[in-house]
Amino acid sequence: MPTERGQKKVREMSELFASSSLIVAAEYRGIDVSDMGELRKTIKRSDAQFKIVKNTFARIAADDCGKPEIKTFIDGPIGFLTTSSDSALAAKALVKHAEDNSLPVRVLGGWFEGNILNSDQVNKLAKIPAKDELLSKMIGSLNSPIVSLVTVMGGPIRALSSVLKNHIEKQQTQS
Questions:
Q1: β-bridge mates for residue 80, sequence order
Q2: Which long-range contacts (CB under 8 A, 24 or more apart) does 4-13 make?
Q3: Domain residues of the chain, as ranges?
Q4: What average pLDDT does range 130-149 have in this prediction?
Q5: CA dist., res. 49 & res. 70, Å (int)
Q6: Which CATH architecture describes the domain 4-128?
Q7: Which of 1-5, 33-37, 44-48, 77-81 has the lowest mean pLDDT?
Q8: What is the mean pLDDT of the chain?
Q9: How far is CA 111 from CA 39, 84, 95, 107, 133, in A?
Q10: How do residues 19-74 score in pLDDT, each as one tens digit?
Q11: CB of 107 within 8 A of CB of 119?
Q12: From edge to edge, which strands make up the β-sheet containing 78-83?
């Protein structure tokens, strides 16, 4: 049974796991403190966090929050990327930062809205455009037919305007 301090860590992780729509387990072996700090800053900018906790505490927290599937990935020195907002953006922050800075981060797998993901699936999730980007693309594609409709509907008015202008010019030249 963990000490009082350990129980506090278990409660904290249990609450974090329970409130997260995405949980990614990643091995961080070989990363120095400054690189870990930069990784955490990058992840935090995507409204996520990277937590390191003892494996025993993580296993207990996984059971306590009703997500025992997470225990499949708990082996060795691992940290947990968690977010309750844009899952693709959070996964992208972890994977891209690790690649861009040649960090030896190895994604082991994850849990996403009730489904277990292997490392390949987490990497595919990281390649999906962020929620805001997808929404702007969708709005742009919805806007395109409206612009075309306005252009088509404006054609007869422009033609009428042109005919009236020519008629007025003709009347002025005849007078």
A1: 25, 51
A2: 6/54, 6/57, 9/53, 9/54, 9/57, 10/57, 10/60, 10/61, 10/64, 11/61, 11/64, 13/51, 13/53, 13/57, 13/58, 13/61, 13/80
A3: 4-128, 130-175
A4: 74
A5: 17
A6: 2-Layer Sandwich (3.30)
A7: 1-5
A8: 87
A9: 20, 12, 16, 12, 23
A10: 999 999 999 988 999 999 999 999 999 999 999 999 999 999 999 999 999 999 89
A11: yes
A12: 49-52, 78-83, 22-27, 106-112, 115-118
Amino acid at 11: R
What type of residue is 155?
Answer: G
The residues facing 107 across adjacent strands are 26
pLDDT at 1 over 70: no
> Is 110 or 134 the better-scoring residue by pLDDT?
110
Whether the CB-CB separation of 26 and 78 falls below 8 Å is answered with yes
- Cβ atoms of 108 and 73 closer than 8 Å: yes
- The predicted pLDDT at position 45 comes to 93
3-state DSSP of the chain: CCCHHHHHHHHHHHHHHHHCCEEEEEECCCCCHHHHHHHHHHHHHCCCEEEECCHHHHHHHHHHCCCHHHHHHCCCCEEEEEECCCHHHHHHHHHHHHHHCCCCCEEEEEEECCEEEEHHHHHHHHHCCCHHHHHHHHHHHHHHHHHHHHHHHHHHHHHHHHHHHHHHHHHHHHC
